[in-house]
Amino acid sequence: MSRHETSPATLQPASNHRPNACCFCWCCCCSCSWNEDREQAWRASRETKLETIPNCEACAKPTPEEVQGWAQSFDKLMKSPAGRNVFREFLRTEYSEENMLFWLACEELKTECNKHTIDEKARMIYEDYISILSPKEVSLDSRVREVINRKMQEPSSHTFDDAQLQIYTLMHRDSYPRFLNSAIYKSLLQTVSHSSSES
Description:
With 199 residues, the protein is an all-alpha fold.
């Protein structure tokens, strides 16, 4: 039974804060106390995991040419560690930093060769960014979710390729144009250009 296919017999009273809830599904529409406990435990584990995420990637200070290049193409921005950091800072202001975190996690997964490590990292990515219980769930269509759910039975380093491409495209089409017009990017461009002209 999917989260949208609850039978009338299993509906909870209208006063419940989660409509169309049933106690036979695993998803967050369930309003039973068992699921509430699971969600609280999950949020606590999320906070612990988040502490291990670095604030930004280690990178050198970008040159004026590099910063100007970010406006030429999204690919140039995403291939630059400094560019990803600045873009991630912008995404944080739009409350969509999870898109970059998910993309980075997928890139890291692709470098793994050890089967046990791949399984572990794939499950963490699933819990952190795909699970509907996660506060950092990324926006994916149902087709991609179905593909991931099938692949998670035997995870590989490419389990999230379709999802990663979808999020990359979303950032490119949706966030990137706003980033180029943002105070964050314009300020950085001005700063590096000014320091370059002084030296």
